[in-house]
Amino acid sequence: MVTMDLRADLRRATAAVHEELDASVGQFNDRASYGRYLHNTLAFRERIEPALAQSTIWSTPSLLDDLHADRDDLELAVLPAKLPVNAITDASRQIGAFYVLEGSCLGARLLVRRAEAIGLTGLFGARHLAAQAGDAGRWRNFLSLLDRAEDLDPARAIDGALAVFEVALAIYTEKIGERSQGV
Q1: Which residue of 40, 75, 125, 163 is 20 to 30 Å from 68, comparing CA positions?
Q2: What 8-state DSSP symbol labels residue 181?
Q3: In this structure, which topology does domain 4-179 adopt according to CATH?
Q4: Of 90, 147, 114, which is closest to residue 38 (Cα–Cα)?
């Protein structure tokens, strides 16, 4: 059985890259900067969601439809989709990947408030944030799963978490949203 130590190990091992990603995501204080954030988030989810789609240990609700609708609301250009990463089939690496995705739901609560400050809501432009932040119990449920999980390799779980952070960091530092139009 995995103990609370895996949570602490995941948090400790990903702290630096998490901080770097938070800085790369940056602040959005107008629709142009939000548009860049939205394009990057869409590119990230288009890569990660398919990689975890076949998981039988946990599933994170897809944000892709909401992200596309948000992009359409803001009349942003459709950028070419990135190729998805390879499927993550190892249970330990999946747990690490889901740790990152579920943890991002906590951050989405703050981002919802930022979006509201620039006139975006769960009905227009910020659907994906509302969906992501909407289920306060998901994080607790995921931690419960993490605590009950057996036969996980902590090193591989950390590897999975770091891999997902690195994909996100590569996308957000690429600044693909700089090419967006119609904001």
Answers
A1: 163
A2: -
A3: Heme Oxygenase; Chain A (1.20.910)
A4: 114
- Record the pTM: 0.89
Distances, alpha carbon 36 to alpha carbons 92, 112, 113, 132, 149, in Å? 32, 16, 17, 18, 37
Give the pLDDT confidence of 25-80 residue by residue, as tens digits.
Answer: 878 999 999 999 999 999 999 999 999 999 999 999 999 999 999 999 999 999 88
Residue at 97: amino acid letter:
A
Check the CA dihedral 75-80-84-85 and report its sign: negative
- Alpha helices, H only, the chain: 4-25, 31-52, 64-73, 91-117, 127-133, 137-148, 154-174
Contact 154, 6 (CB under 8 A): yes
pLDDT of residue 180: 33
As a whole number, the mean pLDDT across the chain is 89
Q: What is the pLDDT of residue 175?
A: 52
Identify any residues that bridge with 76 across adjacent strands, giving them in sequence order. none
From CA 94, how far away is CA 68, in angstroms rounded?
Answer: 25
Asked whether the beta carbons of 162 and 13 are under 8 A apart, the reply is yes
Which residues are CB-contacts of 13 (< 8 A; sequence separation ≥ 6)?
158, 161, 162
The domains of the chain are located at 4-179
